[in-house]
Design brief:
171 residues, alpha+beta, two-stranded antiparallel sheet, 5 helices, 30% helix
Length: 171
Amino acid sequence: MVHDLKIAARCLVTRGIEGAYESGEIATRSLEVLSYNMPVRITIIAPMSEAEKILTKTQEMVYELTVGEVMPPTMVTVAPGQTMAELRVLLRDNRLSGTPVVENGKLVGMISIEDLINALTDNAINAPIRERMKTKVECLYADELLVHCIAKFSKFGYRRYPVLNRNNELV
């Protein structure tokens, strides 16, 4: 039953440009990227006769599940005093494109691979993360419905969001 499926993964969301056959076989020539690192991945491969029922259940899930239910169980973070060189190793070893910056248990910023590339370009690989991080950060709340999360991905266009509890602590 699709409704009971809970997924903890990050994925690339795409849309086929040209469509699919009645049998469900993909008939697209190209894919348009809609979003990166969405917090849920749902793949439906079914005949068109069954697709509407499955899609309805999937849509229900988006309105019932919370961000906390689908987010990864562990989060890699960095401290503002760490260097960009340390960040490079962390991103590589964990296959990440960015991570929250945390000080004394509180979120103070976000740092991304783009920030790392800019530091390399500026010959600032030994600079502390605090000098390169973004401090204005859009967040999600663990008890927030997944549908709100999807709206924020569309509205702001960011690829990653830290998840907080209602005490503004990183979950």
